What we know:
Distance between the termini: 20 Å
Mean pLDDT: 91
Amino acid sequence: MDLPQFTAEPSSDSDAGHAPLRFDFDVIIAGCGPTGAMLAAELRLHDVRVLVLEKETEPVSFVRIVGLHMRSLELLAMRGLLDRVRAHGRQRPAGGFFAAISKPVPQGLDSAHPYLLGIPQPVLVDLLEDHAIQRGAQIRRGCAVTGFEQDDEGVTVELAGGERLRSRYLVGCDGGRSTVRKLLGVGFPGEPSRTETLMGEMAVGAPQEEVTAKMAELRETHHRFWLRPFGGGVYSVVVPAAGVSDRAKPPTLEDFRQQLHAVAGTDFGVHSPRWLSRFGDATRLAERYRVGRVLLAGDAAHIHPPVGGQGLNLGVQDAFNLGWKLAAQIRGWAPATLLDTYEAERHPVAGDVLDNTRAQMELLSTEPGPQAVRRLLTELMDFDEVNRHLIEKITAISVRYDFGEGGPDLLGRRLRDIDVQQGRLYDLLHRGRGLLLDRTGRLTVGAWSDRVDHLTDPTAALDVPCVLLRPDGHVAWIGDDQQDLDSHLSRWFGRPAD
């Protein structure tokens, strides 16, 4: 395999043939959450000059546990990050995600990482931010984007203090209330919150056996209510709110006490909160992910209830899809329509997530109708095919991009991390390049060798002659004909190098 070394300094190449000194950066990213940090690291794999602007001066202080699903774990493995992240998390079985319906995990899930990794969100953000910085990204805190203007060559970004920066592209990863999206004028249709839920971490004075007994009594009908122990008398507390309130106003400990009394008849002696928050069930999807040289990713492009734990994962997966395509555009070798495939591929995926969270929220209702549907679905999930389908949907390992009609079922899907002669498949994707797995020994990547690696006689685990993988691990081509391969190399990796 041809595996070139990572270059620390950015190249002078540009997407429009202009001298790079006309731009402060190639890409400016608004927002340094998981999506923004991952995107920055992906761009730096290809020597793109990146600046991440975060309006907050300090990372969030409260510790919220988030879950990384199978597909996100696979993406981290593709970039050599999984072991580092996994050391800070706790694994649990990959089941019980859909509307909190408890069912056993199906055997033989199609992933080398068939589990959920629970990890404190601030820790995950720190790890991804450090990874981006190590790759060469610049991150500036206390810098809010207040305006921008774009033209045919780039984007001029204005900061809160009046500073103006010039870049080739701007990506809004600045959350559900995205300033970039609003300034861009992109519609955000959907439904406002109808219900809200209080969530926080606090000490509980009641004995654990009392908490456990009350939970067992109420969880059959109140699926938006739980107290989960962290140890040392500290619990994660989730309870329905009294109504829909001003999201900008944080809840109080007294709000939790009142709602715990309303649902459980006791406030469990809660005190000494670590952090308190609320979330709603607003569901919205941006009409477009790209307008000219400005793009949206993560919560800036889609918001939905957190049931199933898909939000953070969806944003990280957006970044993985966008990173190599935007880098190709800047490096000057992207096919004409490559950047457009970001929206074409990710918009439907987000739409599917919004639909399944809508369904899950209905199943969490205490009303008789939704409860009847929940009981029916609980019975149906005893069938392995139904249970497996829902788990694969929540964890995103069933995602298939539309690469055209008539191809094998594997086309457009991600390839799991299989054994190869050199070790593991995902270890060969650390640099974010394409990869040809060639069992025939007759094919070549030829003039695309600066963008695509070539592995001959990879493994007996493949039941097809040859597979071309994109940098995100999705199968771009299957076959054994050199001319057909060249056509698909051109489709995904542009004109061959001179």
